[in-house]
Amino acid sequence: MAWLVPERARGVVDLGAGTGKLTRALRAPGREVIAVEPSAGMRERFSQVLPGVRVLEGTGESIPLPDSSVDTVVCAQAWHWVDPRRAVPEIARVLRTGGRLGLVWNSRDLSAPWVAELERILRDYAAAPTEDRQVDRVGAPFGPVERQDFRWSHPMTAEEILDMVASRSYVITLEHATREELLGRVRGLLDAERPTEMPYVTEGYRAELESL
After folding, report:
1. Span 107-165, pLDDT tens digits
2. Where are the domains of the chain?
3. Using an 8 Å Cβ cutoff, are 88 and 145 in contact?
4. Could you tell me what percentage of the chain is helix, strand and coil, using 3-state DSSP and rounding each to the nearest 5?
5. What is the DSSP string of 39-92?
6. CA angle 85, 10, 203 (to 5 degrees)
7. Distance separating alpha carbons of residues 84 and 63, to the nearest angstrom
């Protein structure tokens, strides 16, 4: 989080906060984190999980905060849903001069050979939805966009990985025979590899507000 959010940041917006997974990591002593989330159901769940954090109805294009009121806006796994033509100036509006926009995506780490093979199997049957991350559309009044990747692993058994694959919407909607064939191939890969964790890579992007 230190790479995305400066230590000096005292007001941080978690844009598209969902149920608050990122919000937990953004919190720090002396810092107010404000969640902005368009879904009423997500906001309700958020308030149950993090009752001490303010959560507001809003979107990247309409943030219910005053001008120049926060130091950083972070958007995780959601920037591809916004209209940058409207969201970029709106985020710039709520940021103080020198404030920062941070964008984050988590994905499976394909540098691990067995994870790359898992991805190939999935794409043989049901290509995952593609995302136009629109990072190149973060322009003025923000400065250059910097990128840094962070690799990490989440403990998972082979059975948990199989369940994760089976629960994906693009797998659920396959015809039964095709779905069973796919899961059989995944099961064979996992039986051979016997993984104890799923490696991930977090792609981080940041840009600082220069002038309005």
Report:
1. 899 999 999 999 999 988 876 655 667 887 888 899 999 999 999 999 999 999 999 99
2. 11-208
3. no
4. 35, 30, 35
5. -HHHHHHHHHH-TTSEEE--BTTB--S-TT-EEEEEEES-GGGS-HHHHHHHHH
6. 50
7. 14
C-beta separation of 129 from 89 below 8 A? no
CB neighbour burial string for 178-212, b if at least 16 within 10 angstroms, e if fewer: ebeebbebbeebbeebebeebbbbbebbbbbbeee
- CATH architecture entry for 11-208: 3-Layer(aba) Sandwich (3.40)
CB contact at 8 A, 11 and 67: no
The letter for the amino acid at 38 is P
Q: What angle do CA 200, 21, 146 make, to 5 degrees?
A: 55
Please indicate, yes or no, whether the overall pTM of this predicted structure exceeds 0.85. no
